[in-house]
Design a protein that fits this description.
146 residues; 12 strands; six-stranded mixed sheet
Length: 146
C-alpha cells in the first residue's frame, strides 16, 4: 500500500536510522528515510506528481521545466529539507532531484512502455528511499514510477 505524503508531509516526522553499507555503490553508505507519525510508520517517502506536456523516448520523459515549475519547486524544497536535516557538514550536498527535473528529463520506471508513448500529461510516483553518502558527497535516492 502506498500513502502519498503530498499534503501531509512534515520534515519533523522524518527519521534517519543508522547508516548501512551501500550495496549499489562500492564505497559509501546508505541511510533509509523513515516517516513516522502517531498513526503510521513508512519506510519510504512517496509523493504523487503531475507533469504536463511530456514526450517519451528511450525510457525517459522529456518536458519543459518552466511549465512544470510549481511541481519541481515542491520536490526541490523537500529534497533541500531532507538533506539539511541529515546535515553531513563534512560532505557536499548533491541535489539530484533539482538537477534531473531542472534539465527537463527523467528516467521513468514502468512495466509497460507503450503506455507512455501517447501521453501528453503524466502522473508519477516519486519514491524517496533514502540518502547515499560517500567520502565527499551525499544526496537522495529516488525513483520516478509510472
Amino acid at each position: 500500500m502506498n500513502i502519498y505524503l503530498n499534503d501531509i508531509f512534515s520534515i519533523d516526522n522524518v527519521i534517519f536510522p543508522e547508516s548501512t553499507k551501500n550495496t549499489v555503490m562500492n564505497t559509501g553508505s546508505f541511510i533509509r528515510t523513515i516517516y513516522s507519525t502517531n498513526s503510521v510508520i513508512l519506510n519510504n517517502l512517496i509523493f504523487l506528481i503531475n507533469i504536463n506536456n511530456i514526450s517519451y523516448n528511450n525510457g525517459k520523459i522529456y518536458f519543459n521545466s518552466h511549465e512544470n515549475q510549481e511541481v519541481i519547486d515542491k520536490l526541490v524544497n523537500i529534497e533541500y529539507l531532507l538533506l539539511n536535516k541529515l546535515n553531513h557538514n563534512y560532505n557536499n550536498k548533491t541535489f539530484t532531484i533539482r538537477e534531473h527535473l531542472g534539465k527537463g528529463n527523467i528516467k521513468v520506471f514502468t512495466e509497460n512502455i507503450s503506455d507512455l508513448t501517447n501521453l501528453k500529461n503524466i502522473n508519477l510516483i516519486v519514491k524517496i528511499s533514502g540518502i547515499w553518502v560517500n567520502n565527499n558527497n551525499y544526496g537522495l535516492i529516488c525513483k520516478y514510477i509510472y
